Amino acid sequence: MTQTAILAVTMGDASGIGPEIVAKTLAKGAGRTVVFGSYVVMENIVHRLGLDLTVRRIAGPEDARSELGSIEIVEATQIIAPPPLGVVSAISGQASFDAIVAAIAAAKAGKVSGIVTAPINKEAMASAGIRYPGHTEILADYGGAKRVAMMLANDDIRTVLVTIHTSLRKAIDQADFDAQMSAIRLANEGGKASGSRRRALRSQGSTPMPAKVACSATRKSESSGPRSRLRAPRASTPVVLGPATLSTCRPARAASMWSWLNITTRG
Known about the structure:
- It is a single chain.
- With 267 residues, this protein is α/β, with parallel strands linked by helices.
- The chain has a five-stranded parallel beta sheet with strand order 3-4-2-1-5. It has a five-stranded mixed beta sheet with strand order 8-11-7-6-12, with helices on both faces.
- The chain folds into two domains: 137 residues, Isopropylmalate Dehydrogenase (3-Layer(aba) Sandwich), CATH 3.40.718; 119 residues, no CATH class.
């Protein structure tokens, strides 16, 4: 991996899989990274996993040494003891939110070049009184972006979602012409920003049918007849996906693609 600028990695939900994913990933070596979260939580998970890693507190990304075999933690929240695993915890929900907000502040200040987020528990955040439905909305609000969209991306395809974090019924209502055009414009702008040379846009709709069918790589024919299956788009082709919910849609499986990045793109 060739990387010069430091990346911020948020810890995720302390009662969930976030810290474990972060620790195992960094144990394999992940370039120059700093973890925003809790020293207590990360030290505990490294010990539980038996990883040969040193966990070190730092004041900020500028103090990172980026030494192999170490995890450097920017203390972004206040946790006295590791919370229990596998439960909905308000403490863990608050901690995951604090880590995201701190990482955004570091990015805005130019201290990190980007943010990689570990999984959070939205129910845990809600139990802490935090009313954001997901990462995208937090990034939009604290990052100061007026136009945002969620992009699922790998080496072969980039998918911009018109609607997120909502039921299929509400998604259909929300995905009007203006919403679809906004997603299309952001898909094009996101393609340019990511250096994509091929930016052919394909738009996909959705109907209230079983997830395996509705979320497969299909498109509506020009004659309003049955949907016809599409070939997987060429490399670096942004695709606009119509009304969909992340809880029911698995585009990676449908297109036989297994490695995805979840990106928030802004206008």
